[in-house]
Amino acid sequence: MKKLIALFFLLNVSTLFGQYHTNASKSELGLMIGGSYYIGDMNQYMPFRNTHLAGGILYRYNIHSRLSFRANLTYGELSGDDSQLDEAILVDRNLSFNNKIWEFGSGVEFNYFPFQIGHKRYKGTAYLLAELAVFRMNPTTIDDNGNKVELRDLGTEGQGSPLNSKGKYSKMQLAIPLGVGAKFSLGKRASMSFEIGIRKTFTDYIDDIGSGSYVDPVLLAEANGPLSASLSNRSLSSSRYGRRGNATTKDWYVFSGMMVSFSLGKPEKCYSH
Description:
The protein has about 270 residues and is an alpha+beta fold. It has helices at about 1-20, 90-95, 215-225, 225-230, and strands at about 25-40, 50-65, 65-80, 95-110, 125-135, 140, 150, 170-185, 190-200, 250-265. It has one domain: Beta Barrel (Porin). The strands form two sheets. An eight-stranded antiparallel beta barrel has the order 1-2-3-4-5-8-9-10. A two-stranded antiparallel sheet has the order 6-7. Helix 3 crosses helix 4 (about 225-230).
């Protein structure tokens, strides 16, 4: 996984610099601001629940008026809390988490209509986004003493011990961002975009919940320590046999918001389209 992520990063950085020096007039640099939220075991059905402020930077290279290469570095925060849910069995589970996400992604934008900054005719378009991304996660929670605790190293489901065949999950993960948006020309050198993009991930541990059942707390305390055991099962009813999570699904997260970008060179008279 680490070698694949490193290769992905190096290939995209070299592509970025190569395209920038090829034609600055087709290149844009911009800022993004919006919100982020997650879909998973602590929020299965409610879009925009626990939305946090998110932002980032954007590079776009306009190959022609209908297709653009894009790369973006984005920061967002994800969270969930069982006390906010309606289902009694989930409220009783009594878990919560917070996760700060750093994501680097690159891919392509497909414009529905021809678009070019500063062009009198091609002023705006809807578009589709498809990317490949790598992101860093680190789920945390608040313990009974009010302290913030990083969950990954605790192995709350017995990871890294004989109680679980899985090792501790990686903080570096891959995702596939897919999105829709609309962009508009702002004069001769700038554009504004509005976008929502959902991230398909390959991990079930953004919220530190991957198993459908609890590990024996006595054995877990012996293997990974008493803090691991106490944060693994915080059930209000103290049930050892309740539902911890859904092991058949992966977690998702969403970034949405607006972007303003500026051309890095003088605009061309017309892109090919």
